[in-house]
Amino acid sequence: MATLELRGIKKHYGSIHAVDGVDLAIAEGEFLAILGPSGCGKSTTMRMIAGLEIPSAGEVLIGGQPVTHLPPRARNVSMVFQSYALYPHMSVAENIAFPLKARHVPHAEREAKVKWAAGLLGIEPLLKRRPARLSGGEKQKVALARALVRDPTLFIFDEPLSSLDAQVRALARSELRQLHDRTRITTVYVTHDQVEALSMGDRIAVMQSGRIRQIGTPQQLYSHPADTFVAAFIGTPPMNLLERDGRMLGFRPEFLRPVPPTTPGEGALRLNLRIVEMEFLGADWLVHGQLETGARPQRLLAKTQPDVAIKLRVDERYDFAVERAHLRYFDRATGLRVDDGPH
Amino acid sequence: MKWLRRTGFWGGLALFAIFSIFPAAWMVISSFKQDQDLYNVAVDPFKYNLPPTLKNITLLFTGTHYPVFLWNSFYIGVIVVVITLLLAVPAAYSLSRLVGRWGERSGMAIFLVYLIPPTLLFIPLYQVVSFLKTADTVWSLVLVYPTITVPFCTWLLLGFFKSMPRELEEAALIDGYSRWQTFLRVALPLSLPGIATCVVFAFALSLSDYIYAAVFVSSTASRTVSAGVPTELIRGDIYYWQSLMAAAAIVAIPLAVAYGLLFDRLVKGFQSEPAGGA
Amino acid sequence: MARTEVAVRVSIGDREGLLGGLMMAPALVYIAALVGLPFCLAIALSLTSATIGNPSIHHFVGLANFTSVLHDAAFPFALRNSVIVTVATLIVTLVLATIESELLAHDFRGKWFWQILIILPWAMPVSLAAVNWLWLLDSEFSPVDWILHQIHLLGPGTIWGPANHLYYYGREWLGLGSIVAINVWRLLPLATIIVLAGRTSIPRDIFEQAQVDGAGILRVLFRITVPALLPILVVAAMFTALLVFGDMTVVAITTRGGPGYATQLLPYWAYLKGIEGGELSEGAAVALFMFPILLAVAFLALRMAYRAESR
Questions:
Q1: Are A187 and A304 found together in one domain?
Q2: pLDDT tens-digit profile of A245-266?
Q3: Which of A224, A340, B56, C168 has fewest C-beta within 10 Å?
Q4: Are residues A189 and A300 in the same domain?
Q5: Could you report the per-residue pLDDT of B125-164, keeping only the tens digit for each?
Q6: A268 is in which domain, residue-wise?
Q7: Least CB-CB distance to C232: which of B13, B215, B276?
């Protein structure tokens, strides 16, 4: 039985279709990331899971039970907000105890659970403080403790790392993932950052314009994107997209390799590119090559190892190739993936 | 150049302050003047040509009904504040959170109530008040003053609730409280500054009304400061000016301090107005 | 830890629509009963012949009250004066408020003190302010006259002489001018606060850009500040107009509408007719003359505000 199921969820505001038919099922203990650009409907979907919005159509089931029209408090869902939403007029301990108070948990048991949650996140020394005197990272931990303390059926994260500094973010990512592995609570993680989604999710649902474009493991999304949107959205840098023979060809920059030293196999795509820019990325180089055949010049990206890149010069022309196995084909009009295989 | 700007600034400020204060300063000076000094046209009125005296203030408190007026105004004010809060706080919360887009935009609409001023309503209200047998008692005023205070306080609190982040209440909903409980446990405690501002203004507004106070109440024992001072401190054709001025100053100065300290709050209140480009 | 199963009963506290209605109901019912109902009653009164002695509204007389009001000798004065006083107060107040808000838009030390001084006229109850000004412009002992005398503007052989005193509340235009002065004095703080609210939401960058471009103070004021302030000036105008037009306290305490009815205003006249004269219906009719003008002011103001905003 799935812990969370969404069937045909829609949300309309007048003529605006914020969410336009979403189907989803999450197994127990799974970590699902909902990924998409702003305005794609991920926040609205999340709010309908939490009960903060009622869907215009469709059903929400938690633990097999329909909860579509139930208020948040009837769903046993915990949420960590982007701004953490700590109650400023209460201490950290009181913040964490708040959900337990709502369920009339007796005092002694409340204290024990607060201690346990605080211990899990390493914030015992902060229990007596007020939120105003906490750092960003500490606030996040308090928000987590509050969400954990009542052992919810489902955890929802609403872009929790976006207010952290870049350096802290990487650390927080792994800490969150470890927390999940320890507690094994089913988690929905909403974000616009594909790096977060790829590194943390068991599966990722990519949303755009109110619909899910693809659900799959990070590897599936990376290597076999279902359409050009997913192809361009996932991965840094994004997949190269090239129009050829009436179809869109896609290939990842790391598979666009100079010839020599590589020798292309049968059915490989061959391109002659003029180097316009070379970006140093540390571990490798991002080579910007301009394809000058075809209707208009197009820029393609190739991720190249330093020992190969050293042989390339800007403004020179070189041969590049992509192995057939790494080519993906998309319909030119709809952007959807079509079967592999040349014409 | 900068020097010119500076004197311009402080000069302008001083001019406005003098304009505001001049009548009030004259009011305070007069309160302590002896009769022979005050009613002497030949001398400088701004100086104490004869030593200042407390006689007029003593007269005000011992020989007139002023203390009664103050007391009436005070406890009418308190009751009106309570009624106002009971009506305005839930209404403001409801408008800000519970009734959708048009609820939030109704900030200006609330003021449409003030389109029907007391000077239009006082005649029919006089009838209503007589009908309810409350004419000539303080209860007529307690009944009617919230029509002045509730719209203003609802508007003030609406701005306050709107500026409170929704996420706090959503967190409480998810944590397990109903909307009503969230209102009590999260929204209300966090809106105490706004409520305090309302208390001050509701009290001051009820104190300041003249029309209803003069029309509905005629017996001296039930009058408020606002209506009592202009009417009762005149014996025949003789105005006891010093006492009159003192009577006005005693009310005006604390009110000015209270309002002055809440100045920025008021400015902010008008900033959350949807209309007006702010 | 065992997963806790929660059984929750959905109550009224969860039904947001219903809760919202219930929370708003007391205020709505109160306003409907004590503002809406009396307003309808005022209309009913004006169409009947009720007096304080016989306050029933059963004798329908149609528009008789309105015609008798229109033919009353005092009516043209009351109407004219209400309009003049309101417009004059509006103009002076708005100009002063714009300048004053310009000064108060900056932060400076001890600002709280000046704020107290500046807000006093509005904080003071209207009737007490009127009494204050009654004494301030007294026909015998006014210190203003004394000052005018000292600077040789009053007294024998001066422009405003030969009398030593100005009879502020006993002359038609001097009386109206005094009423305007009192209204400007007491409403300037409110107007300033409203304009300030609009002023402080003009982003700083615009002013800094103007500084960089080399614009002087006056140019900044007229080319940038005032146009940007237009919507909020409309709001300030609306409040000021409503408060002046509907006020009877100042006249009641200072000129009493005199001499004769030269300084009569609509609301005070309504009071004189309705309460002191006992003619409830006629009083109501006079008061109702105010309403269309109030509506027009609000309508104009809202329209200008929306137009200014969409520019």
A1: no
A2: 888 889 999 998 888 777 888 8
A3: A340
A4: no
A5: 988 888 887 778 888 999 999 999 999 899 888 888 888 8
A6: 238-331
A7: B276
Mean pLDDT, rounded, of chain C: 83
Q: Which CATH number fits domain C65-310: 1.10.3720.10, 1.10.540.10, 3.40.50.300, 2.60.40.10?
A: 1.10.3720.10
Judge contact between A27 and A5, C-beta under 8 A. Answer: no
The domain segmentation of chain C, as residue ranges, is 65-310
Q: Domain check: are A211 and A276 in the same one?
A: no
Assess contact for B226 and C127: CB atoms under 8 A.
yes
CB proximity A110 to B under 8 Å: no
**CA-nearest residue of chain A to C14?**
A71
Q: Which residues of A touch C4 (CB under 8 A)?
A: 76, 103, 150-151
Tell me if C125 and B226 make a contact (CB, 8 A cut-off).
yes
Count of the separate structural domains present in chain A? 2
Q: How confident is the prediction for chain B on average, in pLDDT?
A: 85
- Do A206 and A251 sit in the same domain of this protein? no
Touching subunits of C (3+ CB pairs, under 8 Å) are: A, B
- Spell out which residues of chain C touch residue A153, defining contact as CB-CB under 8 Å: 3
Domain B72-271: which topology? MetI-like fold (1.10.3720)
Question: Which residue in B164, B174, B192 has the most chain A C-beta atoms within 10 A of its own C-beta, making it the best mutation to test that interface?
Answer: B174
CB contacts < 8 A, B to C, total: 325
**Domain ranges, ordered by start, for chain B:** 72-271
Pairing of strands A328-331, A16-26: unpaired
Do the domain assignments include residue A338? no
C-alpha to C-alpha distance for B80 and B152, rounded to whole angstroms: 13
Q: In what order do the strands lie in the sheet with A154-158?
A: A77-80, A154-158, A186-191, A31-35, A203-208, A211-216
Long-range contact pairs involving B230-237 (C-beta distance under 8 Å, separation at least 24):
B230/C127, B230/C128, B230/C130, B230/C131, B230/C253, B232/B64, B232/B65, B232/B69, B233/B60, B233/B64, B233/B66
**Chain A positions in Cβ-Cβ contact with residue C6 (cut-off 8 Å):** 74, 76, 103
Q: Report the candidate in C270, C299, C305, C306 with the shortest Cα–Cα distance to residue C65.
A: C270
Residues A210 and A252 in one domain: no
Q: The tokens of A85 are what? A: 């939403």
Q: Do B167 and A99 touch (CB under 8 A)?
A: no
Contacts of A150 in chain C (CB under 8 A): 4
Q: Residue C54 — pLDDT band, cuts 50, 70, 90?
A: confident
Name chain A's partners: 3 or more CB pairs within 8 A: B, C
Last residue of a domain, which of A195, A223, A251?
A223
Provide the pLDDT for residue C51: 77
Residues in chain C within 8 Å Cβ distance of B267: 193, 196-197, 200
ipTM: 0.87
Question: A150 to chain B: nearest residue by CA?
Answer: B175
Please name the residue of chain B whose CA is at the shortest distance from the CA of residue A97.
B175
